[in-house]
């Protein structure tokens, strides 16, 4: 049974931050009992963005912390890979074995044979990013983290020149909140807090643009349900109407944009009739939306990640962002466009990540192409040798990565050593050679930044962990000692020391941040609304982006060049058909959208979340179901050249005809044949700077 080490005292409230991969990064108040166990978790009412509201899954965090299946001791594989036979091993022996395997891999194939692999299972900077310090110190293969943000961040910076925007709390001061390509009722609940406040206090309209009737769309005053990958066509039609009907702010564009005349000429044929044929929306729907935002100066465009997870995702983001510039919405409090504030935080991370030890000659491997890397694809390996040893922290690639069959095939290689540091026996852990038990966020110190708002937040250790689990930082430090780099810069520091060394800009240390709980980093109005100019040297917004030479937050190294069909990207905002369009053999489009009570592959282990989600299902429109002889609850089969899976049908008019929706990254084992939805997703990168197109898959469908 998982029981924390007793820490007797008085009941109290501890303050922390949600560690999970969500832009809300909620400030938390955590009930702590006299025996040192956590109880209910609540959103902090004192934090102006969290505003006392958090999602139900985090509110029940004790279910996860004290789950009977939590990993509690190091394990070593016995028998064949994936066979499920494990034996106990001491921490010392486990770490010795990992270090020995890394040394053997390096001796046989060079340092690049070792690939430390991680992502956002925790967003705490110390516990998440310290693995890079070991990577750089040992000259292990680089890690290009492409799986989540790249298309969105790239598209935004192509227009604005930086990744920031109006204070997201300004949604409460808006007269129209456009929630584009994100489902915040399920995934970013605080967005709804501020949008609904605007509706109640100002009579603001809420517009939701998405591809199916998700919980957010049900809250909308205007709901626009379009085909996946067609958002740029809608944006172009809205801008066409703005120029046509006098809503475009020509004076604003003349001062702040690069080529408004060229954009207007380009959009002359991108009218609502043109967009209706591409998006599946009605002409009247498009006209009404364009008129609403055109007449409403305080229109706040909250742009999400979901609509960018297509092969034209960067183009879609840039096009949607351009609407705010055509309308001049940036000029008004409660107006403009916001995606992420990731560029406003002045945290000094170079020592934490070992950035000064990085060598540009070391190859960079694409996170999303792990299946291709591990199965020996020469292009994915950058023309160099194999990966034969891995340490995996904070991610579950056997479940969440594209091309799942290739990923599993790679993990089953006999010559590949894998150590996984985890909370539960995930799909990836089951394929490992050594599994290490990890602390959870209330059991260690860390620091967080809220990309979806403007706060740096402290997450101090609140309770004692079980005696047999260890932090990510502990594992990195112990491996560094065994591998001979423990004396290099950045090693030998505690979490608190790392946090203090990241904060010189704020003249603050760990203890002071503990007293303050968070730092509000929101820039002043003129900076946030680009009154002094956008983030390019000339201060001009780019309607004509330089798709292959514009700096971006996660641009691949120059040695890798631009990714994907970048030569097909348009000169101005436009719909570009580089998505997986249906064909005779694959007449349906499949999107793998987030589930409300899961977060990627996290919370899939808790009873409450699994009961609320039910089972893996695919949403099918009644017309498509009838045409294929499918009834609600039937077992159906989906497939494409990457593979095929079986799951249950949910017949609903919430899906559009021709579009299939599979919510949630269920564990592979929850599916009928032990294979998950990412069997069907591709790892070919999104142009121009990479990314995974999880919502862009053509498939066939039939009753099983």
Explain how this protein is built.
The protein is α/β, with parallel strands linked by helices. The strands form 6 sheets. The chain has a 6-stranded mixed sheet with strand order 5-4-16-15-14-6, covered by helices on one side. Strands 21-23-22-25-20-24 form a 6-stranded mixed sheet. A hairpin with a 2-residue loop joins strand 22 and strand 23. Helix 8 runs parallel beside helix 13 (313-327). The two termini are 41 Å apart. The mean pLDDT is 97. Residues 11-69 form the 4Fe-4S Mo/W bis-MGD-type domain. Belongs to the prokaryotic molybdopterin-containing oxidoreductase family.
Summarize the structure.
The protein has 704 residues and is of the alpha/beta class. It is built from 23 helices and 25 strands. The strands form six sheets. Strands 5-4-16-15-14-6 form a six-stranded mixed β-sheet, covered by helices on one side. A six-stranded mixed β-sheet has the order 21-23-22-25-20-24.
Write down how many β-strands occur, each being a DSSP E stretch of 2 or more residues.
25
User: How can the largest sheet be summarized?
Assistant: 6 strands, mixed
Beta fraction of the residues? Answer: 15-25%
The computed structural class is alpha/beta
How many angstroms does the end-to-end distance come to? 41 Å
Q: How would you state the average pLDDT, rounded?
A: 97
Organism: Shinella yambaruensis
Family: Belongs to the prokaryotic molybdopterin-containing oxidoreductase family.
Keywords: Iron, Iron-sulfur, Metal-binding, Molybdenum, Oxidoreductase
Cofactor: Mo-bis(molybdopterin guanine dinucleotide)
């Amino acid at each position: 049974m998982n029981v924390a080490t007793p820490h007797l005292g008085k009941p109290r409230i501890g303050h922390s931050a949600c560690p999970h991969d969500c832009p809300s990064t909620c400030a938390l108040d955590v009930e702590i009992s006299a025996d040192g166990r956590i109880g209910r978790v609540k959103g902090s009412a004192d934090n102006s963005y969290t505003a006392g509201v958090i999602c139900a899954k985090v509110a029940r965090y004790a279910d996860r912390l004290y789950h009977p299946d939590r990993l509690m001791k190091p394990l070593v594989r016995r028998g064949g890979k994936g066979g499920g036979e494990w034996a106990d091993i001491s921490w010392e022996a486990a770490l010795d074995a990992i270090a020995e395997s890394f040394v053997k891999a390096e001796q046989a194939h060079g340092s690049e044979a070792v690939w430390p692999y991680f992502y956002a299972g925790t967003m705490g900077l110390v516990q998440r990013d310290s693995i890079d310090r070991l990577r750089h110190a040992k000259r292990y293969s680089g890690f290009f983290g492409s799986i989540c943000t790249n298309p969105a961040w790239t598209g935004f910076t192509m227009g604005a020149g930086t990744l920031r925007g109006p204070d997201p709390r300004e949604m409460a001061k808006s007269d129209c909140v456009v929630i584009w390509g994100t489902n915040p009722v399920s995934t970013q609940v605080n967005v709804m807090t501020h949008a609904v406040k605007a509706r109640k206090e100002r009579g603001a309209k809420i517009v939701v643009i998405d591809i199916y009737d998700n919980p957010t769309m049900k809250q909308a005053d205007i709901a626009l349900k379009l085909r996946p990958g067609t958002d740029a066509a809608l944006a172009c039609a809205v801008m066409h109407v703005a120029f046509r009907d006098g809503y475009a702010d020509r004076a604003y564009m003349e001062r702040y944009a690069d080529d408004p005349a060229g954009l207007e000429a380009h959009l002359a044929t991108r009218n609502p009739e043109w967009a209706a044929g591409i998006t599946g929306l009605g002409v009247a729907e498009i006209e009404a939306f364009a008129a609403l935002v055109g007449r409403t100066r305080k229109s706040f465009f909250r742009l999400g990640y979901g609509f960018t997870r297509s092969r034209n995702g960067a183009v879609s983001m840039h096009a949607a962002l351009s609407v705010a510039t055509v309308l001049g919405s940036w000029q008004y409090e409660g107006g403009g466009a916001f995606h992420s504030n990731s560029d406003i935080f002045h945290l000094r991370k170079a020592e934490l990540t070992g950035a000064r030890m990085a060598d540009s000659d070391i190859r960079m491997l694409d996170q999303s192409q792990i299946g291709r890397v591990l199965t020996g694809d020469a292009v994915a390996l950058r023309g160099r040798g194999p990966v034969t040893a891995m340490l995996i922290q904070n991610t579950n690639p056997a479940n969440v990565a594209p091309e799942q069959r290739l990923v599993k095939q790679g993990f089953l290689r006999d010559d590949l050593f894998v150590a996984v540091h985890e909370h539960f026996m995930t799909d990836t852990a089951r394929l490992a050679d050594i599994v290490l038990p990890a602390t959870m966020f209330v059991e260690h110190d860390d620091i967080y930044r809220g990309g979806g708002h403007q706060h740096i937040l402290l997450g101090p250790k609140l309770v004692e962990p079980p005696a047999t689990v260890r932090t990510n930082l502990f594992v990195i430090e112990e491996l560094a000692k065994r591998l001979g780099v423990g004396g290099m810069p950045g090693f030998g520091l505690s979490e608190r020391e790392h946090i203090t060394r990241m904060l010189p800009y704020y003249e603050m240390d760990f203890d002071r941040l503990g007293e303050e709980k968070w730092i509000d980093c929101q820039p002043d109005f003129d900076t946030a609304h680009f009154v002094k100019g956008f983030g390019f040297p000339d201060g001009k917004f780019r309607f004509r982006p330089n798709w292959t030479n514009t700096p971006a937050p996660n641009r691949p190294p120059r040695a890798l060049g631009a990714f994907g069909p970048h030569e097909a990207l348009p000169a101005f905002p436009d719909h570009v058909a580089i998505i997986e369009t249906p064909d005779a053999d694959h007449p349906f489009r499949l999107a793998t959208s987030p589930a409300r009570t899961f977060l990627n592959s996290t919370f899939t282990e808790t009873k409450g979340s699994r009961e609320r989600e039910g089972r893996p299902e695919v949403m099918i429109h009644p017309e498509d179901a009838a045409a294929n002889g499918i009834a609600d609850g039937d077992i159906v089969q989906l497939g494409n050249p990457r593979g095929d899976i079986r799951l249950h049908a949910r017949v609903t008019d919430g899906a559009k005809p021709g579009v299939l929706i599979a919510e949630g990254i269920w564990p592979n084992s929850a599916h009928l044949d032990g294979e998950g939805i990412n069997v069907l997703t591709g790892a070919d990168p999104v142009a121009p700077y990479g990314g995974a197109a999880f919502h862009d898959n053509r498939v066939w469908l039939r009753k099983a």
